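Running this now, will post back.
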Amino acid sequence: VLDGLLHRQNPDGRSLTIVDAYCGVGTFALLLARHVGKVIAIEESASAIKDASWNLREVSNVEILKGKVEDLLPALAAQIDGLVIDPPRAGCQQVVLDALIQHPVARVVYVSCDPSTLARDLNILCHLHPAYHLFSVQPLDMFPQTAHIECVAVLERKSV
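Update: finished.
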């Protein structure tokens, strides 16, 4: 995730603002906070926010926003340098995809637990409304001997 967001775009990364959408307990936010200027973590689950707050208690450059990604991301998209998005199995809501199309972020790392919804969302972002170029996709067998697979896709904003 860190490589996908930082190393090609800005090896230093200290001035970047990154959104961790669907942040859960703050795992990606914690990883990213050490390398960027600011992380904005979005989560709607009160219990996950409580755990994220605990996990991030010693990290000063993470702001946790309580709410739905589809409600908060549209207002943030034009102001950020990168995005980690790890949506539920159903994938991204259309309003989230619309925000990413209307205000393309320089780099998006899309973590998915369902390759079919990832493919659907990438088709929208890279082909139907080609705001992004698909840079890479990496499948990860996090649950051996099951049908479940994680995928990490890196998208780059297309030049205007």
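The chain has a mean pLDDT of 91. More later if anyone needs it.
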